[in-house]
């Protein structure tokens, strides 16, 4: 795995559907710019943790028009003091027609602290399942 980025991420609350897990690692997928595997890490049960994985896309690479509004409370939760410190990721899911991404509940990671959260964008008109078209 030489040259591949592995970033530890500790969620401030478990991601939806992955309770009670909060410790993850963000693994860059070799040869796929902006695609990552978000894998659970659990020292107590390594076999179980290895099976918990989401694929996420870096929105700055794949969804340049995606600009959700993060509330002051959400910013404080992640201890974000500079917008450049926020890594905006969307969960990618294979579908019969290709790939969909969840734009309503992005994963935001503080690049400085490693704190992460899956945020619900209330009052914003982003789809839960948006088809990802070719770039």
Q: Could you tell me the strand content as a percent range?
A: 35-45%
Q: Pairing-aware structural class of the strands and helices?
A: mainly beta
Low-confidence stretches: none
Total count of helical runs of at least 4 residues: 3
The value of Rg in angstroms is 15 Å
Distance between the termini: 27 Å
Average pLDDT metric: 89
Give helix and strand order, one letter per element, not per position: EEEHEHHEEEEE
Written overview of the protein:
The chain is mainly beta and 135 residues long. The chain is 11% helix and 36% strand. A hairpin with a 2-residue loop joins β5 (86-95) and β6. The protein is globular, with a radius of gyration of 15 Å. The mean pLDDT is 89.
How are the elements arranged and paired?
Layout: E1 6-11, E2 23-28, E3 35-40, H1 46-50, E4 53-58, H2 59-62, H3 72-77, E5 86-95, E6 98-101, E7 107-110, E8 115-118, E9 130-131
Parallel strand pairs: 1-8
Antiparallel strand pairs: 1-2, 2-3, 3-4, 4-5, 5-6, 5-7, 6-9, 7-8
Name the descriptors:
135 residues, mainly beta, 9 strands
What is this structure, in a nutshell?
By secondary structure, the protein is mainly beta. A hairpin with a 6-residue loop joins strand 2 and strand 3. It is globular.
């Amino acid at each position: 795995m030489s040259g591949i980025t592995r970033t530890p991420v500790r969620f401030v609350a478990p991601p939806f559907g992955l309770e009670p897990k909060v410790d993850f690692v963000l693994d860059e997928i070799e040869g796929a710019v902006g695609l990552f595997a978000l894998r659970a890490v659990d020292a107590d049960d390594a076999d179980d943790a290895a099976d918990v994985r989401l694929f996420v896309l870096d929105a700055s690479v794949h969804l340049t028009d995606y600009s959700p509004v993060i509330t002051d409370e959400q910013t404080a939760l992640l201890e974000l003091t500079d917008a450049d410190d926020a890594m905006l990721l969307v969960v990618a899911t294979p579908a019969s027609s290709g790939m969909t991404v969840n734009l309503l509940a992005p994963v935001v990671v503080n690049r400085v602290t490693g704190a992460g959260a899956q945020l619900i964008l209330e009052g914003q008109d982003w789809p839960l399942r948006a088809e990802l078209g070719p770039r």
